[in-house]
Fold Trehalose/maltose hydrolase or phosphorylase.
Amino acid sequence: MPMFSDYDSADSEHTWVMAFDGYDPQDEGHREGLFAVGNGYFVTRAAAIEATADEIHYPGTYRAGLYNRLVSQVNGETVENESLVNLPNWLALTFRIDGGDWFSIDQVEILSYQQSLHLRSGVLRREIQFRDRDGRQTKLHEHRFVSMAQPHLAGLHLELIAENWSGELEIRSAIDGRVINNNVKRYEPYNKQHLEPIATGTLEPAGIWLNTRTSQSRVELGLAARTQVLVDGAAVESTRTIEQEKAQIGECIRVHVNRGAVIAIEKIAALYTSRDPAIACCIEASQEVVLTAPSFTDLLNASKHAWERLWMRCDLEFEPVEYLRIARLHIFHILQTFSPHTADLDAGLPARGWHGEGYRGHIFWDEVFVLPFLIYRFPAIAREILLYRYRRLNAARALAHQQGYRGAMYPWRSASTGGEETPRFQFNLLSGHWTPDHTQLQRHISAIVAHTVWEYYIITNDIMFLCDYGAELLIEVARFWVSFATYHPEFERYEILGVMGPDEYHTGYPNATTSGINNNSYTNLMAVWTLCRAQEVLDLLPASRRRELYHWLKLSQEEIDYWDTVSRKMRVVFDENGSLSQYEGFDRLQELDWQQFDHERINWVLEAKGDDVNRYQVAKQADLAMLFFLFSKAEIEALLQRLGYTFDLNQMQQTLAYHLQRTSHESSLSRFVYAGALSQLELEKSWQLFTQSLITDVSGASSDEVKSGIHLGAMAGTLYVLQHHYLGLKVNRGRIYLNPSFPTSINHLRVSLQLQSNDFQIEKIGDRLNVAAASTNQSSVSIIYHGEMVDLQPGISLSFALNNV
Ligand code: BGC
């Protein structure tokens, strides 16, 4: 178990710093992912600077949206995978004394060790006191950042104190391009070499550079670094030698050190790619910027300043205070993955951040959990995430077409092109078997793409976005749903067959020869929802744009009438007891004997025993609970009423309780979904699930997983629950709806929001909810508090009693 400690250094506030006391090689991979630093352009794992990849350490740097395809032979077949590429290691820096061993944290006697992540400033620190095998005692203080001010720069500062020795100190600072993608054990059988070296060289007066390219996507990379050494604050006589190969370059700097001396080593590195805007040549850009960059301190100050600006926009206050720090960590990682620096990179929102190679850096549906946080604070960034999808609308059309459907069918896993990136097989580490991967049957992802477009619109009121992109996307997804649905004459209803819901355990019916399950309630209702929005969006467009779209998409009234028909006649399956069924036949599956499992990888365990998870009533994650997470009770009732079904509160409670009991929560996208879904029904249960979800990545429980990247969806999902469920916030075209439902444990919550040109602060203190409009607001806004409408003028604060509700 990792030591997860409080950090009480004088210069840091408790809720802004996360720290680990003591070095734990077993937990190192987890800490590397959790404490990675980045700026939305690139992210560098919190790996030890002196380490190369081995069983314990994994230095990794990833640039947002930079993928490469490789062909591999696995399971007797030729397969292709596109992966986020691990880039040359700019951290590489170590030292030795009097020709002894090069420093390695694993080879010295550690006297004290602390690693801390400073959320407010974006700085990672490591403080070590150690003794080498010759009894030399040294203190090492390391600071590292990836600049939030200048997205191509990063800095490293090392202070060494020669506590009881004098001697020749040799420092080796390198850019190591010999790296491969080797962060995920399960991908062992695949090809991992993504980089092809081009050249290395030196800079005048000092510095090194490395030029390389990805093998298939042909993206060139330019990295450059300069390293400076000061002894007791002054430049001293030193010798510099260069070690140069085609795929790595290093410089060795030798200085004499007297007992008690303080040696400061500062390394500034730059990274550019040939896909970056506003440059002519990436290698030249990296060389120039590294030579002209100011000192470490100045760069760091600029980066802190940029972080301050981001925090001004998106900080929150939250009590109990022990959770505030984690909530801030979640915001921190959202911003490191997607910041204003990501905006021009055509990157999607990756499930695991740019923090590791889990899921090969692919884009799934996780943006649905992250976008709402961004829309209220950085609408321009949120828009870019949607544009990633819009730019791949033709690819989604092609996918639909290939399979005989109309409209746009978004892939379950997407990377550069928007083609389907779901692998054909998965390797079960428990059984050693390759098993087919059917997850691309999660057609519900297209509805989520439509949903995020709609959310963006109703919160920002950005009608031009709808005109230019959003309406077309929504309509094409609606077209897909009607062509995908089949009519069942006996039921006189439409059905959606052969899919998978969000629960990835169920890939088909037991012993069936074809894959997929039928009438997943979540998928069917999301399809209905999309069809309704596609009709609504047409009414919202200005007449000229509507006419244009009819023409461009060859739309007819007949087609729209058909959407309406399908949206009123979709089949939804209920269990005998009146609960919504996860899918047709789920309730007839066998009950699982939970005693035999520890809730982890149940599908793998069963497969290893020659059994099949498809036979059991067990879900990997929230499935139909997603409906209750995304929509209010009233919205779900309205959807079902449209279809001619009645659904009351009892059925809702029963449905959630039934499925919660049968969910393993193996996916991190589960507990917080239930926490949100239960917020109006069972608050204390909701809070329990929320707090469990909050610590998904910080606790040791998911240590192995975080090694290959953070769980961005889960991190953002907890913020979603705070904002949308406990605070009960919904904004719809200029109106603010508040339906708070706070667990008793939340004493205080404050969030700030930006809606068009108006700023608001919403704060729960004790049993009051205060909503304040900034005096600079341009207009008044309607607040609908539990159904009661009040007008909020600029500069005014309203206070509502929470207990009276
Ligand atoms: C979950 C998916 C999720 C993916 C990436 C999987 O384990 O089942 O719902 O999108 O991880 O986060």
